[in-house]
Write a structure and sequence with these properties.
- The complex is a heterodimer.
- Chain A is an all-alpha fold.
- Chain A has 12 helices and no strands.
- Chain A has one domain.
- Chain B has 2 domains: 101 residues, Beta Polymerase, domain 2 (2-Layer Sandwich), CATH 3.30.460; 283 residues, Cytochrome-c3 Hydrogenase, chain B (Orthogonal Bundle).
- In chain B, strand 10 and strand 11 form a beta hairpin.
- The radius of gyration of chain B is 22 Å and the shape is globular.
- The chains are: A mainly alpha, B alpha+beta.
- At the A-B interface, helix 6 and helix 11 of A face strand 9, helix 6, helix 7, helix 9 and helix 15 of B.
Amino acid sequence: MQKIIIIMLLIVSPFFFVGIINRVKAVWAGRKGSSVFQPYYDFFKLIRKGEVISRTTSIVFQITPSINIAAILFALLIVPTPVSGSVIKFPGDFVLFAYSLALAKFMTVIAAMDTGSSFEGMGASREVTFSTIIETAFFIVLGSLALLTGQVSFETIFVMLNISAGYTVLVKVLLVISLFIMLLTEGSRVPVDDPNTHLELTMIHEVMILDYSGPDLAFILYSTALKMVVISLLIADLIIPFNMLFLPALGITAVILIAVFISVGLVESLIARLRMSHVPQFIFIMTALSLTAFAIIIFFLRGGF
Amino acid sequence: MDWTEIKNLQSVLLKDVPLLSFDKLREQLINSVKSGKRLVQFFGNEEKNEVILYVVLADDQQSKLYLTSAKFKSEKTFDSLTREIPSARLFEREIYEQFGIKPEGHPWLKPVRRGIAGINSQEPQYEFFKMGGDEIHEVGVGPIHAGIIEPGHFRFSCYGENIHYLEIELGFQHRGVEKLFLQKKNNPVYLEKLAESICGDSVIGHASSFNSAIESLGEISIPRRAKLIRAIALELERIAVHLGDLSALAGDVAYLTGNAVFGALRTKVINTTMAICGNRFGRGLLSAGGVNYDISPELRDNILSTISRLDDEVSLAAEVYFSSASVLERFEKTGIVDFETALEIGMVGPAARASGVAIDVRSDHPFGAYDFFPVHKLTLKSGDVFARAYIRFIEIQQSIRIINEQLNNLTEGGLKKNFSSLKPNRLVVSMTEGWRGEIVHVVITGAKGEIKKVKIKDPSFHNWLALAIAVRENGISDFPLCNKSFNLSYCGFDL
């Protein structure tokens, strides 16, 4: 029952968090800003619209938004929450998690190539380049956690994490920062991408979905937002112990998710976007941090000093 | 040398303009440009089945302009100057497009405004520059853009993420402005409005240039107070657009703070212009003979306090902006135009000054109030996006000082002088430093004092090529940033 409530809450929440980012940016810029629920209105507006499908596209273009949403919803079922754990769990489930996110990305990329537009081809090439780097880093994060806890399933990893040794705090800090970088990259936020720009030549994610309109666009926007929620849940998992009561756990998880998205908003307000050729260096920070965490774990597992 | 020596806004009788053979003109032109003079105008005017070619050269050190002409009767070709004087490339292409007179030996003779815009289906399609190779891909952008941008087509030849070559095709905004000036020559009010509409972000610049030309042809000197109000409006326009550009540059690198702060400051400045004349862009303020609106003592105090607050706020915002590592990382060493290139292709305005070319009409060829309030030329060296952004900041500060000085010396006196007619058979070169650079209007009158030719040159005319050169070997994702750092006009180019 609890699991159903939590999953339902998470399914409806993504646009609220996007609304938070927008609101933080608006307040920082001295504007009143739109309601945090504005992305919901936009979603329902798009759902009611008709759509234009380019004649040069094939079936791939049309099935992508649905596959995207399905793949990311599936990832949501695998990722544990500090409140109720995972819905689907089995040894090695995090590999399936990583690759259901990858499936969504793969579909977006080939759908972009499907349009035949040179813009979308550029966006696809950038997305794939950066994904290659981030995927490695993500598996180092997961590997570190598995090594630290000796577990191979998401839920048990995070349960065990709370009862392991003192140096895990350090590991947790490093991994939280790593995952935050992943959140910015995968969510196409500043400093990697700029969700607000109208300049096709500078876009990564936005340019790949240029040809989508109406309900398809609404699906894509929803899956991007949901993907950010899924990744921020991992951050919450690292911070919150898994042995709390339902209501306090729910409250703290909500606070942490909101804090994460306010941080995303602050990053977008305070720093400019990176030059495209420097984006890999930024993502390599994630690799470096997770490798450091990995090294610390090995060091302590072998008996420390 | 067979050239008439004139000054900015000094009209000259047409019969005093030397008429050379083209070969002689060509030889003297090449020598003059080699000795440091600058090609300002080079255009043809069709008169009684022959085309008269007028050439204006500027000697920026001596504050002098040199004028001469040549005649094409039945010749359909002439020896191109472009290989010797690269800044003549567009002028020659324009002559070819308008009169069919072919500059032989022009390295790349293609239309100026009718490449892809405005051609009908019977005409041959324009062939873009093509690059070969497996790794090369082409990206075409426009003429319809996302966002509120004027139409223009950009064709990139890239390898990977790098731009190897950019070809820019314009002309989609061609309205026939120069022809409209002649069609409506009997309606002076229409002409004033037309001059204001040449380029919507340089209303004061173009209006000031055109009206000054008319006043010079009418042989009147406008009241000092009117000159000051014009200069104040021109500087307000400069501040407003520069602030808007700093904001937009921040927007292009997704730097929210700079985008919001400079955007908000711009509003204060355009609202100041509105307080003077009722329009935020200064439409209706200038008219031939002076200005239409006065600055009352209360308004003067208001403007003084507004710009003194603006000075503090701009300095504070710029300090944060130009010390932000993430912004500098994007601006520095992006889109470099070096000094030699800038000089060679005839760049003008802040973009040229950012590359170290010290030209500024306000001090080289003073006009209006700048006769008695000299302006110091500001230059930077690096020629990158950073320099073009930073020069905007220091020019804003300079303009604030100029406005302060002029408002404090706002002499009493009339606003407008009436005049009856323009003097016949004359030519005047009117140069103004708009915020984007040198605006040149050449006006020629006929035997009855009617306007016979208006030739307009917006600063964008020269600077579009600078953009195409600046982006070479830069990432294609940096193109919008480079583009914004020039912020060139499409309609000013297309006319």
